[in-house]
Amino acid sequence: MAKSRRLIGTVLLLLLMPLFLPVVSADGMPQQPQINTLWLANEFGENNHAYRVTFADGESYQAVIDVEHERAGEDLDVEILQSWDLVDGFRILDIQLNTSLDWNDIITVSVSITHYAEQELDEPMMVEREFEVGTWNQPMDDHEIMLETTWLLDQIYNTSEGPQGFNLNFTGQGWQQRIGDTIESWELGNGSISFLESTDLGSNNLSLDLESIWKNETIQSGILTSQVFEAVGSGVLHIISMEDDVNTSIIVEVTNAELNRSIINQVISERLKIDANGVLNISSQESENSSFAVNGDIGVFYLETWDENGVRRFYDQRFEAIADMIIIDDGSRLDIDVNTLNSGETWNDGVRTSQIEEVVGSGTFGFSESDNESSVNVNGTIYQFHTKSEQGITLVDDIHIDGVITGDVQGDFGVVRGIELTGMQANATGIEFPVNVIHEESWFNLTGINGGNFFDGAGIGATHNQTWDYQVIYSDWENRTVRLVWEESGADSSSGEEFPERSPIEKEPEPPEVEEALGNLTVSRETGLMPIPMHPGDKIRLDGQEGLTLVVTAEAVTNDPRDGHNFHVVSWSGVYEGSESGTATGAIIDEGPLKGLISSVSRVLAIPFGEEGNLANFTETQLLTRVISPAVVTAEENSAPIISGLYLLEGLVVSEGGSVATLVAEVSDVDWNLEQVTVDLTPIGGSIVVMNDRGIDGDAAIGDDKYSTLIVVPGLEVGDFTLAIEAQDSFDSISSSTGQITVVNQAP
Q1: Confidence of residue 219 (pLDDT cuts 50, 70, 90)
Q2: Considering just the CA atoms, what is the radius of gyration of the chain in Å?
Q3: How many Å apart are CA 526 and CA 137, to the nearest integer?
């Protein structure tokens, strides 16, 4: 019996011994830790090259860390700094490296766990993760995709002058293609833009419907090398000013507006062109019996500017109008028909290359006056009023007025003024200047007086005055008269000359300057380095776009369905840091050749601008709509493209090169892998042409399944012609069809 008890005790001891041994068996192995990026800012605002190993619990661990950092095929010398901590009940190990990150680097982080819960493992647990360094939203493999984008930029604020505002919204489709190290992206759509600028004297309000908004970017090896933004549209411009009791209103219909902003090789270029026509209204009501009004039609309102790196390189402004002007003042009335009102100037690189100011008009005037039951009427005709300066030189200064006096005083009067000759004249200090000699002759004859005290009590008789104004020819100068000669005959006859002091004052024309205008705000998307693919738990700081830094946290693995196709993605969220405030959320593909590509994103951002710290609100949503390449289906799953029509957008085309027409083929492909659509134009004197759905060469919209090309019929072909069309996908499945177009004769 005692032997049996000893045997049982020995067996129990053997069974329990593994529980007390210092080496942990397989049943006590820890769970695998998670290795994540910790590419966040250090105390100097620069991104760390760091990683975090998060263990499955809060127990103690011992581990051996190994890091390999490869750049352009060579291994870098790596130094590792480790720090352990306990965060939210989980043991973590932060790894800080001495190397920096660069695009296309390969980093391998290996963790070998040797001890767990103060026990040595039978075999070390090995965990490894390889990181390929790419650029945010730019897969490393060749690809071609289509996107759908909507965004809104809204700047509204108040100043001491009044409300200010800028609003730009966009809806469109995009296309991105990567070949090798080069990524090209395009966005094409439409939207609207509006400006409201208030000053102490009034306001400018421009509203445009943008029929086309185009954006193109080129990225080479992860670096943005060019960006072009272009918008074309039409709308209304309303200018209101109130100065010295004079109200001015200009309302013009903008028939064409073009805006272009580009960044190419770090050179920022901005171009603006506005072509418009409309109406002009100027009015002033000084008192019940005194008013001033101008009503006119603006035939030409043209403005074109080009700014480069904050310097105005080109400026062209033209204004042409006709108007009727009425001035009423205490019984007098002046009516002038202004049949020419032109102004314009052109500047190239700070040099004025052309300038013109011209006013041509004619009209009538009259007034009545009473005194002690006597009255007098004055009626006159302005036969000519003409002033003109060109290239900064006064060329014309003509006035011709004749009038009659009736009632209890009878007589006539007149004024004739014009440039008599051009030559040289010395001023008061003896310095000679080129001058126009402007001769003005005026007369005032009273032939009868029957009563009253008019014209300061002047009696019957005639006065005749002549002046010769020696005026420098340069219209931009001030105090332009250097010599004045006069002769007066009549009751108070006199003659003489004078040389005004401080005449002339030279003044160069001031070139137009670049002004910090509303809307002069660059809104780009965040960019920076990222691990490809991302894993849940990764934290990165995208600081590649100056002034727009986003701290991103990868969250969870999920699926993102698109038109029957599922993308395996990692959801993420981000917070903008610095002076900007806002958030972004989205999903990024983490499997396959498209890993690193955003499948959906929503951004809400407040961007400060100006010295007063005002905010511009920017919101955007972007959605991956199609993957053209690589294919998202297998050859067995693939379906051939479907051709449903071929037509001319304009309905017909004129032979002998008489018109350019847009040929459109409607082609759909449920598998998104349509590679090429061609049309055979040989029946109308052409060749086999590749059509596109990329918003270029006549195509109106990206990704709408309408493939387009511009065509011209160079020869004498006339009638209905059948054209053959082919569509081919990435698996070489080909669909063929035909369609008819109409070619007509040139008009005689």
Answers
A1: confident
A2: 41
A3: 10
**What is the distance between the alpha carbons of residues 440 and 463, in angstroms, rounded to a whole number?**
14
Dihedral angle over CA of 33, 39, 41, 45, nearest 10: 160
How far is 384 from 625, CA to CA, in rounded Å? 68
CA distance 488 to 588: 91
Structure pTM?
Answer: 0.73
- How many CB atoms within 10 Å of residue 430? 7
Bridge partners for 209 per DSSP? 192, 234
CB atoms inside a 10 Å sphere around CB 103: 17
- The structure tokens listed for 347 are 């500047």
Report yes or no: 225 and 262 within 8 Å, Cβ to Cβ.
Answer: no
Fill in the DSSP letter of residue 505.
Answer: B
* Cα 335 from Cα 294, distance rounded (Å): 10
* Token pair in block for residue 508: 């160069």
Q: Where do the domains of the chain lie, and which CATH numbers do they carry?
A: 25-131 (2.60.40), 372-510 (no CATH), 529-629 (no CATH), 642-744 (2.60.40.10)
Residue 397 CA to residue 545 CA, distance in Å, equals 57
Query: Which residues neighbour 121 within 8 Å (Cβ) at sequence distance 6 or greater?
Result: 23, 24, 29, 113, 114, 115
| SS3 call for 2 | helix
Give the Cα separation of 632 and 626 in Å (integer).
10
Cis omega before residue 33 (within 30°)?
A: no
Distance CA 603, CA 151 (A): 9
Positive or negative CA dihedral for 215, 218, 219, 225?
negative
Determine the average pLDDT of the residues in 541-567. 88
Q: What pLDDT, in 10s, does the model give residues 115-174? A: 999 999 999 999 999 999 999 998 988 888 889 999 898 888 888 888 888 888 989 998
DSSP 4: H
Question: Residue 527, SS3?
Answer: coil
Task: Please provide residue 713's backbone torsions phi and psi, each rounded to the nearest 5 degrees.
Answer: -100, 105
Nearest to 110 by CA among 73, 80, 76: 80
The band of 24, judged by pLDDT with boundaries at 50, 70 and 90, is very low
For 574, other C-beta atoms within 10 Å of its C-beta total 23
Which of 543, 513, 539, 519 lies closest to 529, judged by CA?
Answer: 543
Categorise residue 21: left if φ over 0, alpha if ψ from -120 to 50, beta otherwise.
beta
Residue 8 has pLDDT above 60, yes or no: no
At residue 748, the pLDDT reads 73
| Integer Cα distance of 557 and 538 in angstroms | 12
Q: How many CA atoms lie within 13 A of 495 on its CB side?
A: 6
Interval 312-320 mean pLDDT: 94
| Polymer length of the chain | 748
Task: Tokens 């020696």: give the residue.
Answer: 470
As a whole number of angstroms, the distance between CA 740 and CA 719 comes to: 10
